[in-house]
Description:
Elements: H1 3-11, H2 17-22, E1 25-27, E2 35-36, E3 48-58, H3 70-86, E4 91-101, H4 107-124, E5 127-135, E6 141-151, E7 166-169, H5 175-188, H6 198-201, H7 205-212, H8 218-227, E8 230-235, H9 240-251, E9 254-258, H10 266-275, H11 279-285, E10 292-296, H12 298-310, E11 316-322, E12 327-334, E13 345-350
Parallel strand pairs: 4-5, 9-12
Antiparallel strand pairs: 1-2, 3-6, 4-6, 7-10, 7-11, 8-10, 9-11, 12-13
Amino acid sequence: MDEFASIRHWTDGRQAAERLREQGVVIGIGDDAAVVEAPPGPGEGGALQWVLAVDTMVETVHFNTATMGEADVGWKALAANVSDIAAMGGVPRHALVSVSVPRAWEPARMRRLYDGLYACAEHYGVAVVGGDTTSSPAQLVVSVTVVGTVAAGKAISRAGAKPGDVVFVTGPLGLSAAGLHWLLAAVHGGEEAVPLTAAQAGGTAALVQAHRRPAPSVRAAQLLAARGTVTSLNDVSDGLASEAWEIANASEAKLALRETQLPISGSLAAYAHRCGLDPLDWLLYGGEDYVLLGTMNAEDAAVAKSAMTAAGMPMYLIGTVEAGAPGVELIRIDSRLGGGTGRYAERREPIRPRGYNHFA
């Protein structure tokens, strides 16, 4: 198939005309550019601002076809951008998808990649309205741009954390990194990792799912943003330590995280124990969890947590914001500091801004 036949094969009939109209699409895929109407603001006379994010995934750098299926790659390429929109308190609306395709990725494989991408788009209400297609000499490259909206003046940046605020996350941490660890071990051990059923994965199925099909916290972001008490927000793409440092630097404040309050799932704890590894390393430095890390007014934290729980979504209060030079510390419990009395004492450890970095 030539370029244009390929585009039609990947995209035709993927999204209902009604869905596209809901998102204000006037002209979609197939012309020189897409045309969309600006959606109405929230409430009478309300205004919106556009929120734009772009993310690129490169084969062998961001994904490996030995550990991820083609549809997983498509899902994750869009999900990473959806998460960035959520991290601003916004609503994802439109996507542009550019692919650079090597010969090894024949039409059937690319069709499966678009299966995953459109599944993610439907799940989060995103209209795919265009993109670009080129050839690649070796690796597949997928670049997605997502456009979202946020109420004017209500976008939540990384820069608003204040001393006294509570630090929170909207889901468990470390699952994606642990899932990748299992997948790589399976591949190196000669097992077939793709496709993988829950039965094959045993107790690690949730970890594998978290790595292959991350679930951005879009609804949680909307509920929290509507409270008006969130002071900073970031998504955990490169690891909790890295994202916490980004908030600390942007806000010129110190984040103190409590080890005992970091959310760890049972499947992650069990797998780490099985491997003889410390799960804390995955929690702090794993990345690609795509939950939200943020800060909010302490007076509203417990009420917000209850509201989130009532709405069926997790929220974990994991620390506080303190005055001082920008930094991130982990508060740990150590029985050795109790002077042999059996009591426990706290000790603080600085957390390095370590996480995934392309140029480190």
